[in-house]
Amino acid sequence: MKTLNLYLVRHGQTYYNIFNKLQGWSNSPLTQAGIDGAKEIGERLADVNFAGAFCSDTGRAVSTAQIILDLNQASAVKEPHQAPFFREEFYGYYEGMDMNQSWYLAAGPHGLKNIGEIVAKYSFDTAKDFLKEADPFGMAENHEEYWQRVDQGYELIANDPQLQDGDNVLVISHGNTLLSLMDRYAPGRYDLSERPANGSLTKLKLTDGKIEVVSYNE
């Protein structure tokens, strides 16, 4: 049995975060506040000995990971392993669009107004399905497509031969992904009506491929 301690950090603030746009697989650079926030969490984690580091291949995630690793004093890891499995949910037609408007269009056909109402009545997985239904191109990820991809990321970590029992692993994550993980693996434990903060820390234990939530949005 191998247990890995995962340190999930939400990427630093981006311009799309300020503009309230769905970011998904598209990207915008870190703001100065985002850079400063990444440095702040990097300093918090400076003495954690990371045996590995993983992130999506989007610029905001790579930049956040590199800032944290550059500030680390205990780890020999110098750069993150980039993989598309760790990307945020793909929003298809709604990539880069106003977040409130997009979720209104997804929720409206079901008699609801926003993602909060969808989640309160159903779940984050249902929200993914509703957005795909509303996508005129049908390209947004539904919950099955999303988890099939994301689960491969955690399989990648679990099967990494260089990681040993008890090792600490840095993972740069995304807002809706963190909410989705909490909804799936810690239902009812946390208030998910507010998005996790940029630069916040969430801890998981990964034991033989099974995920346990230790803490959220610290």
UniProtKB/TrEMBL annotation:
SUPFAM superfamilies per UniProt: Phosphoglycerate mutase-like
Keywords: Hydrolase
InterPro entries: His_Pase_superF_clade-1, His_PPase_superfam, Phosphoglycerate_Mutase
Gene3D superfamilies noted in UniProt: Phosphoglycerate mutase-like
The keyword Hydrolase is annotated on this UniProt entry: yes
Domain of life: Bacteria
SMART domains cross-referenced by the UniProt entry: PGAM (SM00855)
Protein's name in the database: Fructose 2,6-bisphosphatase
